[in-house]
Design brief:
single chain, about 575 residues, alpha/beta, Rossmann fold, pyruvate-formate lyase- activating enzyme, Serine Threonine Protein Phosphatase 5, Tetratricopeptide repeat, seven-stranded mixed beta sheet, six-stranded parallel beta sheet
């Protein structure tokens, strides 16, 4: 590293911290930007409300080095105050005035949260214009120069994992360490971007995060945690757990490798993980855990020890792997141990059913792995299974997208979350587009098509009165590469073919009960959706609930009459026959 660069960063630290720093305010910003926040959706508890696990780890490490800390979760504040978005501003003001921090450190996970990051940094300066502001997390790591130049109130960005490097920076500010300790930090000197990007790989520590007095047991009541909240019992109390960091894969659309460094996976000890789960159950009443791991099954022997220890200690909890697992790791022994330890939901990262696409995106598993995994999971109907699918890859033709549909139908998992490829920062696919001049390097817009604030929902609303023409996008030349606009219609038909159509042949009561909860959640989350409502009626009928089935079908018919967007799609997919068939019994 150039000594002059380190000297310039060190000089800026000296200017901003003339009296050192011992008081650190750790801040979790609102996840959803204000311009996209819908109070009605918030009141339905459909926005993510996660405990700030990463900040809890940083908080623990800072305290070990003698720093006075305070942890404030502004995302929680929004939902805990009647879903009044502006509540976070008063919460922050009070905390800054009361705690008098000498630095404000803001963590930001998602690119979509960028506007919130910017607003929180500005609010910190409004309360105390002299307090330095530091940002860290996945989004600032992926776009540090963009963050610094667009959010001028942010003085420094910490790159990748920061529990030790941030503490090292503060030690330097206080004269405890030499300038050589500085790393993984970026700043602006004038308008010039300056970065010390030499990495220090964190060693996994078995101690749990320090959440201070955050009401961890209340988070689940304010929003959703994980992808299986909709099939959990109503009295489930949900939180998160981390057993390892990193992923063996190098998928070109994923930023995990860039954040955690290489394909190395660092694992906590099994007793430490299970001890943390037991404490959260005892202290906060947590009964269900979502694993935050990106590669939960990386080490088969360790995974078996983990699941068996949970079982042997009889914690009485359940868990899910919302982030997805690598298909090649799914074995009969793993699934049996997972089920015994409380697994109710398992997601596989599939993405494509075309071998050429899988190779091009560098998936760690292949089609034969997906088939083997599905065969194993088929023997355990008590686990709700999902498979991540994606379309819109480079050189992906309509025929190759059809391969994905065919494989998904063959595997017959319970549900398939589908996304149109979004080139998020710090990924291989994003770098390639930037190098070819097809995407601006400074871009930060990483909105997903599917989701509460996604493009599909906005499309339904915008085309309710007068929709654009809709035809079966799979007709015609299968060798053509679809346009971005065509991908939206391909997504729609794909969603129907792999998620809804198979419900017509599903007869297992345990699966129908899970699907009923899943479809009810969709109906609440996506109002006036005749497709989900119709199939909820079909499931109710299969479960013997004739009156409920009739009500849902009638509701679906009403939604259909009110939406030109949905009428056009029901005609092309020949869905009216299902409404009449179920109406006539």
């Amino acid at each position: 590293m150039d000594k002059s660069t380190r000297s310039r960063v060190d000089a800026r630290l000296t200017r901003l911290f003339p009296k050192g720093c011992v008081r650190v305010l750790l801040i979790n910003p609102p996840v959803i930007p204000e311009e996209e926040f819908d109070p009605s959706v918030a009141r339905l508890k459909r926005y993510p409300v996660f405990p700030p696990y990463g900040l809890g780890i940083i908080n623990r490490e800072l305290k070990k080095r003698g720093y006075a800390t305070s942890l404030v979760d502004l995302n929680h504040a929004v939902f805990a105050n009647g879903c009044e978005y502006s509540a976070w501003k008063e919460t922050l003001r009070q905390r800054v005035e009361r705690f008098a921090p000498q630095v404000c450190a803001i963590s930001c996970m998602y690119s979509m949260t960028h506007p919130s990051l910017k607003a929180v940094a500005a609010a910190c300066k409004e309360v105390n214009g002299a307090v330095p502001v530091v940002a860290g997390g996945v989004h600032p790591t992926a776009s540090p120069e963009v963050v610094l130049k667009d959010c001028r109130e942010i003085d420094f960005v910490m790159l990748v994992e920061g529990e030790n490097t941030f503490a090292d920076l503060l030690d330097r500010v206080n004269g405890r360490r030499s300038p050589g300790v500085l790393r993984q930090v970026a700043t602006l000197v004038g308008d010039e971007y300056v970065v010390l990007d030499d990495r220090r790989v964190e060693t996994e520590i078995d101690e749990p995060p320090d959440f201070e007095d955050l009401p961890i047991g209340d988070y689940h009541a304010l929003g959703k945690i994980g992808a299986y909240h909709n099939i959990l019992p109503d009295d489930a109390n949900v939180s998160t757990m981390l057993s390892n960091r990193g992923c063996r894969g190098s998928c070109v659309f994923c930023s995990v490798k860039a954040f955690y460094g290489g394909s190395r996976v660092r694992m906590r000890s099994v007793p430490a993980v299970v001890d943390e789960m037991a404490r959260l159950k005892d202290r906060h009443g947590i009964t269900h855990f979502m694993w935050l791991d990106d590669d939960l099954l990386f080490d088969e022997k360790r995974a078996l020890r983990l699941f068996r220890e949970i079982s042997e200690r009889r914690l009485g909890i359940t868990w899910d792997a919302s982030n997805g697992v690598v298909a090649s790791s799914i074995t009969p022994a793993i699934v049996e141990a997972a089920l015994d330890s409380g697994c109710i939901g398992l997601t596989i990262g599939i993405e494509s059913g075309n071998p050429e696409i899988l190779r091009s995106i560098r998936k760690p598993s292949g089609i034969h792995h997906y088939r083997l995994a599905a065969e194993v999971l088929r023997s355990h109907p008590g686990i709700f299974t999902k498979g991540f699918l994606m379309l819109g890859f480079r050189d992906e033709t309509v025929g190759r997208i059809r391969d994905t549909i065919d494989l998904a139908r063959e595997l017959a998992l319970d549900w398939y979350p589908i996304q149109i490829l979004t080139p998020i920062p710090a990924t291989g696919v994003r770098r390639q587009l930037e190098e070819e001049g097809l995407m601006a390097p400074e871009g930060i817009n990483s909105r997903f098509f599917l989701g509460t604030t996604g493009g599909q929902r906005r499309r339904e609303v915008d085309e309710k009165v007068l929709a654009r023409e809709f035809t079966d996008p799979f007709l015609g030349d299968p060798g053509r590469i679809p346009t971005p606009e065509e991908l939206k219609d391909l997504w729609f038909v794909m969603d129907y073919r792999v998620n809804y159509e198979k419900i017509l042949s599903e007869e297992r009561p345990v699966k129908l009960a899970m699907l009923r909860r899943m479809l009810r959640d969709i109906c609440e989350r996506v109002p006036e959706n005749p497709l989900a409502t119709l199939f909820l009626g079909i499931v109710e009928e299969k479960l013997g609930n004739a009156e409920a089935a009739r009500e849902e079908k009638q509701r679906a018919a009403g939604y259909l009459c009110a939406s030109d967007f949905w009428r056009r799609r029901f005609v092309i997919l020949n869905l009216h026959r299902l409404m009449w068939r179920h109406e006539n019994g």
